[in-house]
Amino acid sequence: MRFLMMSKTNEDFEAGNPPSPELFARMGEFMAEAAAAGVLLQADGLLPSSAGARITAQDGEISVTDGPFAEAKELVGGIAFIEARDLAEAKEWGRRFAVVHDGGCEVEIRQVAAPGGPGGPGGPGDFS
Q: The YCII-related domain covers which part of the protein (predicted)?
């Protein structure tokens, strides 16, 4: 099963301060370990929200808001797609990712919906 791991950003990063060289090194080790285990499919960090935009559609109206956005703790700072046997394994990789950050991050894990959804046609995530 494929899962998306999303790490939330923080006020320091949103202010334009990159992670420390030590954190970059630990992240490199974690990513190398996940790749060697055959779990990591893709991983990328995101720029601060000041480099982005938010598009909202409501009642037939489209609005575009340029960043930065308030509430940094609600913003995604990085993503990784992983391949795991089940949610329990995906959560373990998410836990290890949080440990790399000295417990100073929030990680959200979501299973990627496939055609027919998890469990087959008509199951949760079946958007066909």
A: 1-111
Helix (H, G, I), strand (E, B) or coil at 121: coil
Q: What is the pLDDT of residues 33-85, one digit of tens each?
A: 999 999 999 999 899 989 999 999 999 999 999 998 877 667 888 999 999 99
Kind and range of the H or E run holding 63: strand 61-66
Residue 65, CA distances (Å) to 19, 57, 68 in order: 26, 12, 9
- Alpha helices, H only, the chain: 11-14, 21-36, 87-100
Q: Give the chain's length.
A: 128
3-class DSSP assignment, residue 109: strand
pTM: 0.81
